[in-house]
Amino acid sequence: MNEKIHPMGPHHLPFYLAGNGTDVLMVVMGVFLVASLIWVGTLYLRLHSLPERMAHKSEKLQFEIVAMLGLLALFTHVHLFWVAGLLLAMIDIPDFGSPLRSIAGSVEKIADTMPDTGSGAEQETSPAPASVPSDTAKKGASIAKKAGGGHA
Fold first, then answer.
1. Collapsed DSSP state (helix, strand, coil) of residue 17
2. Three-state SS for 23?
């Protein structure tokens, strides 16, 4: 500090001012401000995605709806969407699709194993002539299946 101090300036500099003119306290506060903004932003986004994480963790059926409500709340700043998403993430909606799919699968299996009541009953009551060769009978059965809409 061989330089002359300006006559209007203070004769004693505070501890946070370096001799080269760098304000150390301002640099420290700038780093603290950036770090705190990143921390608060991360906290805000984690809190904002809370309903979506809750619905995903418990494997809810309405996960996509909760996620869409979260995005709407984020971009529109309407907090009611966030509250609705949180409530929807906590509620268990009954799964009506799985039992209905199971019933449909069982009915399909029953329909495939049961003989046709219309054409099958007529074939059972009338005996096939004994003079028909077996190859012809097989061809006739395959034609009957195709005509009757039977599954192979």
1. strand
2. strand
Please report where in the chains the tokens 């805000």 appear, as a residue.
Answer: 44
How many residues are present in the chain? 152
Q: Which of 36, 39, 62, 35 lies closest to 51 in space, CA to CA?
A: 62
Task: Report the C-alpha gap between 25 and 32 in whole angstroms.
Answer: 10
Q: How far apart are CA 70 and CA 51, in angstroms?
A: 7
30-33 contact pairs (CB < 8 A, 24+): none
Q: pTM for this one? A: 0.46
Q: Tokens 């004693």 sit at which residue?
A: 12
Give the type of residue at 107.
V
- Alpha-carbon distances of 129 from 123, 126, 146, rounded to whole Å: 12, 9, 22
Q: Do the beta carbons of residue 62 and residue 88 sit within 8 Å?
A: yes
Measured in degrees and rounded to the nearest 5, phi and psi for residue 17 equal -95, 120
Q: For residue range 103-134, what is the model confidence (pLDDT) as tens digits?
A: 999 999 998 876 666 655 555 555 555 555 55
**Burial (CB count <10 Å: 0-12, 13-18, 19+), residue 54:** middle
